């Protein structure tokens, strides 16, 4: 990537961060005008977008200042160069020209500097959380592909759902229930959909791993961490303690952030996940390479 391009990338990310800060500040005024009052909030769309932008700012700056390619040199004084461009408001961007104060609110320069001092630990925690989330998502994706090799059947979890639906609509009359089951009415929504977690449970059962408490809880923990992203990183459920293969204990507390105290815990958990996946491959009977590989036909 050319030096000028990387500078533009960082500059635009900082400007976008400035816009987030400005809108975050405006949020109070908007809510006040609507008669909505509060004493404190932990997150909003704009605060979460600020955190997301911080990650990209750090990544692009690392590329610029710690470049390891032989054909390029690290860019000296890049932070000061970019901030000087922003101070002079010498930016070829139509919306910026119309609303320059919106992109450069008071405190934007201080916020940028703090990112690499006071807030660097928060950024690292966010990166490690993303690592765990992305790793589980990959495990889920490739495990679900393996599910296609299994004979179709109705899981116990699905059977319970079907039973509840039948009782709700027709009561305990066995003959009526059988008629509905035969016609596949009323239960089509359950029959036609199998969640990713159900597919993984089925695979574990198929290879006799479903009763391995340690393996199933590691999968559950990483799934919980991944799903926590829908709750702004918070965990909602019963307080729980998970243990990795290495014996490390990880605590989840209702209403608290999904956070591992030691970054290495993420590495240990993902290492465990790899062990589980390879064990599934060894035990599961399948014949199609496309279940575990993205096969490319070079003859075409």
Radius of gyration over C-alpha positions, nearest whole angstrom: 26 Å
**Broad structural category:** mainly alpha
- What's the main sheet like? 2 strands, antiparallel
End-to-end distance:
33 Å
Number of helices: 13
Low-confidence stretches: none
Percent range of helical residues: 55-70%
Question: What is the general shape?
Answer: extended
Beta-strand content: under 5%
| Mean pLDDT reading | 75
* Number of structurally distinct domains: 3
Structure in words:
The protein is an all-alpha fold and about 300 residues long. It folds into 3 domains: about 5-120, no CATH class; about 130-150 and about 195-290, no CATH class; about 155-195, no CATH class. The chain has 13 helices and 2 strands. It has helices spanning about 5-35, 45-65, 80-90, 95-100, 100-105, 110-115, 120-145, 155-170, 175-185, 190, 195-205, 215-225, 265-285, and strands spanning about 240-245, 250. The protein has a two-stranded antiparallel ribbon with strand order 1-2. Strand 1 and strand 2 (about 250) form a beta hairpin. Helix 7 packs across helix 11 and helix 7 packs across helix 12. It is extended and about 75 Å long.
Which descriptors would you attach to this protein?
mainly alpha, 3 domains, two-stranded antiparallel sheet, 61% helix
């Amino acid at each position: 990537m050319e030096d000028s391009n990387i500078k533009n990338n960082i500059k635009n990310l900082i400007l976008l961060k400035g816009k987030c800060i400005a809108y975050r500040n405006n949020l109070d005024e908007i809510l006040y005008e609507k008669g909505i009052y509060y004493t404190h909030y932990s997150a909003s769309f704009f605060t979460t977008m600020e955190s997301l932008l911080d990650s990209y700012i750090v990544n692009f700056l690392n590329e610029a200042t710690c470049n390891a390619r032989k054909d390029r040199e690290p860019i000296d004084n890049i932070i000061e160069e970019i901030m000087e461009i922003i101070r002079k408001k010498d930016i070829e961007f139509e919306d910026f020209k119309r609303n320059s104060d919106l992109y450069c609110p008071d405190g934007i320069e201080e916020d940028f500097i703090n990112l690499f001092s006071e807030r660097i630990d928060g950024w690292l925690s966010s990166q490690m959380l993303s690592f765990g989330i992305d790793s589980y998502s990959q495990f889920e994706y490739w495990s679900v592909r393996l599910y296609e090799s299994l004979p179709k059947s109705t899981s116990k979890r699905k059977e319970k759902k079907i039973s509840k639906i039948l009782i709700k609509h027709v009561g305990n009359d066995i003959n009526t229930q059988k008629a509905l089951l035969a016609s596949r009415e009323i239960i089509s929504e359950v029959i036609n959909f199998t969640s990713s977690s159900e597919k993984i449970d089925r695979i574990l059962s198929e290879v006799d791993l479903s009763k391995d408490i340690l393996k199933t809880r590691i999968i559950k923990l990483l799934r919980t961490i991944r799903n926590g992203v829908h709750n702004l990183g918070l965990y909602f459920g019963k307080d729980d303690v998970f243990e990795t293969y290495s014996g490390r204990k990880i605590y989840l507390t209702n209403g608290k952030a999904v956070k591992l105290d030691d970054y290495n815990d993420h590495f240990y958990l993902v290492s465990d996940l790899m062990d589980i996946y390879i064990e599934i491959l060894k035990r599961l009977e399948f014949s199609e390479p496309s279940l575990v590989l993205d096969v490319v036909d070079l003859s075409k």
